[in-house]
Amino acid sequence: MSKLDRFLVSEDWKGHLKGVVQCTLPRPVSDHFPILLDGEGVSKGPVPFRFENMRLKEEGFKDLLKGWWQSLSFNGSFSFILAEKLKALKAILKYWNKDVFGKVGVNKKLALDKVGFWDSQEKLRPFINGGTGS
Dihedrals φ, ψ of 22, to 5°? Predict the structure, then answer.
């Protein structure tokens, strides 16, 4: 086994940033562990809006989206209308998302915590082949 993912920093860089830690994150898909470099006092700001692909799998979502888009009406230049429709659609999607999926961030964290738990168990115990030994 080898460690492929690392952060390389200089002593000067470490002196400027206090409370910086490096840790591995759960590996939900790959056989590589993503790494996180986190620091104290870093302001994260508001969470940006992200479109989750899971919404596309929800039955009737595309029709809802089309209806919402067509119901939005603004006056002005094409770029102004587009920007306003996108802002309004964002608000609609946030409300709909909470109503249909609940707190996605919390559910995602719980799922990743489970993946992390099983990853740690895998590190502690060697893989044992339950087959016929071939």
Answer: -120, 135
Q: What are phi and psi of 32, to 5 degrees?
A: -105, 145
Residue pair 33/119 in contact by the 8 Å Cβ criterion:
yes
| Domain extents in the chain | 48-124
Helix (H, G, I), strand (E, B) or coil at 76: coil
Return the biggest CA–CA distance within the chain. 72
**Interatomic CA distance for residues 14 and 21, integer angstroms:** 10
3-class SS at 127?
coil
pLDDT higher at 97 or 20:
97
Q: Model's pTM, two decimal places?
A: 0.47
> pLDDT of 14-53, one tens digit each?
666 666 777 777 777 777 777 777 766 555 667 677 777 8
Residues 6 or more apart from 80 whose CB is under 8 A from it?
74
- The helix (H) or strand (E) run that includes residue 82 is helix 78-101
- What element of type H or E holds 37? strand 35-38
